[in-house]
Amino acid sequence: xxxxxxxxxTKRYGNFTVIPDLNLEIADHEFVVFVGPSGCGKSTLLxxxxxxxxxxxGDLYIGDTRVxxxxxxxxxxxxxxxxxxxxxxMRVYDNMSFALELRGIPKAEIDAxxxxxxxxxxxxxxLDRKPKELSGGQRQRVxxxxxxxxxxxxxxxxxxxxxxxxxLRGQVRAEIKALSQELKTTMVFVTHDQIEAMTMADRIVVxxxxxxxxxxxxxxxxxxPANQFVAGFIGSPAMNFFPVEWRGEGAILSQGxxxxxxxxxxxxxxRQAGSAVLGVRPEHFAVTADAAxxxxxxxxxVEPLGSDTLIHFDLAxxxxxxxxxxxxxxxxxxxxxxxPQSGKTHLFDAANGQVVQ
Amino acid sequence: MNDAANTDRWIRWLNTVQLVLAGMIIMAPTVxxxxxxxxxxxxxxxxxxxxxxxxxxxxxxxxxxxxxxxxYALNSLIVTVxxxxxxxxxxxxxxxxxxxxxxxxxxxxxxxARMAPGTLFLLPWYVMFRQIGMIGSYTALILSHAVITxxxxxxxxxxxxxxxxxxxxxxxxxxxxxxxxxxxxxxMPLVASGIAVSAILAFVFSWNYFLFALVLSNxxxxxxxxxxxxxxxxxxxxxxxLMAAATLIxxxxxxxxxxxxxxxxxxxxxxxxxx
Lengths: 357, 275
Known about the structure:
The structure holds 2 protein chains of 2 kinds. By secondary structure, chain A is α+β, with helices and mostly antiparallel strands. Helix content of chain A is 27%, strand content 33%. In chain A, β11 (240-247) and β12 (250-253) form a beta hairpin. In chain A, α2 packs across α3 (107-121), α2 (92-102) packs parallel to α4 and α3 (107-121) packs across α4 (136-148). Chain A binds chain B through residues 50-52, 71-75, 77-79, 81-83, 85-89, 98-99, 102-103, 132, 146, 150, and chain B through 165, 167-168, 170-178, 181, 185-186, 189-190, 275.
């Protein structure tokens, strides 16, 4: 168990800089999720921590030890790979005991640890099988078991759920979270799925182009996104964005000039800025009967999800989504009046995407 | 529907004809050789060739009576096994290193060495080995035959190593394996059939190689294939004994290939299909 500290880290491939000057502190016992779109550098960062990629410049500490020049084999880190990377020629038992055997741990203790981990992951019946005789979900558990038996300083997960079907993914997600609470070990989890990030993390690192956009708790990232990128990336369906301006005594949509009802605090910031990008999450629209209180839109598409219904509509030259109560029974072509909920709107600078203060 | 069935029949028939033709072209000399080895000596070169004859072991008896055939066979075995072992010893780590580092020029270099005519090496080797007094030694023959076996081992194993997902090696690294141990514990067991195939191919090619042994061996270390060449005399050639010798020489590679033919095909295509 150990903290992980990344200081002024740069990673280059030839002339191409993947990660420019990154700083990150992961506390002991913390569950941190790296999330971001493809190519944002999240897997590279994880592989750097594992020791599978060299660092171009900067420092990496695991605990109090600077590990820049320490081989992966000596870092005492366990990793679960996207394709599980089990040893195909070894039985499940041997897959799990291999790392312990390399460390010269006595056979009796190896056996105890393997059986304990197998019990924890419900894979005892498969200990004598080869990986090819297991299903995707079972292989995934073996890969986790192989990491758990090590009792390492930290666990690294590289998109371990992406090869599972949706149902199993939800189940394993919950299991990993429960496991993290039981094992109390530092965990770093890489995913491009923001739901995995939100549900599992103590803190989320949102990455774009190798740069940390925000590093905070899931609630903070959702409620107070640091910039338009984070606001658009976290949340499903994604946040709606509308360019707005302050005109006379109120806010209007830049395109079309429709008046937008904003709460006093947001209106005040917009008045000061003159123009901005308004961000409203689909779930933060309220349906109202009063046309003066909201924006009238025509429903273009309806997606009933059971618990909620998503309605798609065109506004200010773009497409937008609102999440409404299914009891409303919205239909395509209906006209509906939507109002951004008070205190739930976001304003971003149109030029740099930063929050308008 | 009928047209399609007709076309299918035609294609099948054409395939059969092609296979029979190819089989005849490949097999005819071998069948000729084996039959001739059992013919009385006067019938071996008879024209037109006789297809019906009373088989005899006369040629084989002649062969063992007039030549130290068994000691030549032993020489062949020593050189072939030695050079195959040497090829595996260096070829397995070399193929793994090329696959691991993705630096391919060493593999291409060995391939170039394999493709170059043997005479290119022969003259410098002859001079070098003579100067250090090793002409005629098993060591010289084994070393020279490693030029045959090493590229075979590397090129058969390279796609096999490449086919192992990189993450398996990385998992082993994270588990605490050194590169050497990854080769020994993870990579080699996973390409075991490839190793067997490369060993067999190396054995066959080394066994059959003629030129190096002809020049670098002496009377005591002459390999079978080089010795057989001596049957073609200036005055009279003992065709019957030569055919018997050729049949015996061809036997080990043929038997080996027949024993492991299924493995051989799957081993050669190992890299193409991910397991």
